[in-house]
TrEMBL record:
InterPro entries: DedA_domain, VTT_dom
Pfam families, per the entry: VTT_dom (PF09335)
UniProt-recorded name of the protein: VTT domain-containing protein
Highest taxon in the source lineage: Bacteria
Residue ranges occupied by any VTT domain in the UniProt entry: 38-155
Regions crossing the membrane: none
GO cellular component: plasma membrane
Source species taxonomy: Bacteria, Pseudomonadati, Pseudomonadota, Alphaproteobacteria, Rhodobacterales
PANTHER family: ALKALINE PHOSPHATASE LIKE PROTEIN (PTHR42709), DEDA FAMILY PROTEIN (PTHR42709:SF11)
Amino acid sequence: MLKSLYDWTIRMADSRHALWALALVAFVESSFFPIPPDLLMIPMIIAAPHRAFLIAGVAMAASVAGGMLGYGIGYFAFDSIGQPILEHLGKADSMAEFNGKFNDAGFWAVLIAGVTPFPYKVITIMSGWTAMPLGTFIVTSIIARGLRFFIIAGLLWKFGEPIRDFIEKRLGLVMTLFCVVLIGGFFLVKFL
């Protein structure tokens, strides 16, 4: 089933409905869909680099809107919908401990999950479950998803096909390292 979802996502990149498909994939990926919108964005931008930032904007807006659905799942329907999704992702065991610490670091959790390969859907559901302030969640999601999608769009717009391999294989690592350095810098400033 996952292979057929992946194949559908890639086929949609060549469709005249590609922007709508991207919006749908970005929306549902933020709360339950397993395929990241990057897989659709990359071939779309390579095919039409002049639309790179429009494509990134659609992905960001739809992803943030989908994140609000994930937030709603966590807030209103955690026991019936959110918990089974997290159990399926293998995150159920650490939920109680995570809940106690989450809102203290909520901004950072959403930011990190939004730009790294960590499943953003887990954070959206957990944000609702722990009742993170909705404004904090939305603003941080816009920043995080904007960074992720506009960096990809910018790299593809500037370098085209040659940067594709880097994005697909190493961008997640680079973004994770960026977050580690960013957080480390804040801790250094705070404690020095």
